[in-house]
Amino acid sequence: MKVTVTGTPGTGKTSVSEKLEGYEKIHLTEFVKEHGLGTDGEVFEVDTEAMCEKLEEETSEGDYLIEGHLAHYISSDICIVLRCDPDELEERLGERRYSESKVRENVESEAMDLILQQAVQNQEAVVEVDTTGRTVEETVKAIEEKISEGKSSYGKVDWTDSL
Ligand SMILES: Nc1ncnc2c1ncn2[C@@H]1O[C@H](COP(=O)(O)OP(=O)(O)O)[C@@H](O)[C@H]1O
């Protein structure tokens, strides 16, 4: 079983993945750096094709959870897309050492469902989980329920009012 957990930065991928049990975990940024699959410049650029190939190789057997904002490009049995209301996301990202423009870019991308759209194009089963106003534990529980249902569910979240 291969589960991917994706979402805009700050939606909670790392926090919830730490608490999901029963999987070998792969943190994509670490994986990419470890295997030299990215280039450092003004922005860190990932060779997505090479990343997917390497991961297919390394996760062909066993139960894996792959977490990162590019995780939806890796074929999986189920892809979890974490969502967060743009206002709450802005607060979460405000606590990081991000520039104002980086915060704005991520908040807008969340409001436009960008990652959800990419996930739907690349994955068979996509599940959207709203983290807004929930604790990490509540989110983990919601994800576990969705994984056991094993079918796609998305489209309820609508942040277009904040655009
Ligand atoms: N329901 C929730 N699910 C996940 N994270 C949450 C939730 N509510 C608040 N948070 C907080 O939001 C932040 C998300 O950070 P992180 O897990 O690093 O996100 P990402 O890996 O998506 O960039 C953490 O500080 C986490 O405690």
Structural summary, described in words:
The structure is a single chain. The protein has 163 residues and is α/β, with parallel strands linked by helices. The chain has a single domain (2-152), classed as P-loop containing nucleotide triphosphate hydrolases (Rossmann fold, 3-Layer(aba) Sandwich), CATH 3.40.50. It contains 7 helices and 7 strands. It has a 5-stranded parallel beta sheet with strand order 2-5-1-6-7, with helices on both faces. A two-stranded antiparallel ribbon has the order 3-4. Helix 4 packs antiparallel against helix 5 (100-111). The structure holds adenosine-5'-diphosphate. Residues 7, 9-16, 92, 131, 134-136, 139 line the site of adenosine-5'-diphosphate.
Outline:
The protein is α/β, with parallel strands linked by helices and 163 residues long. It has seven helices and seven strands. The longest helix has 14 residues, at 136-149.
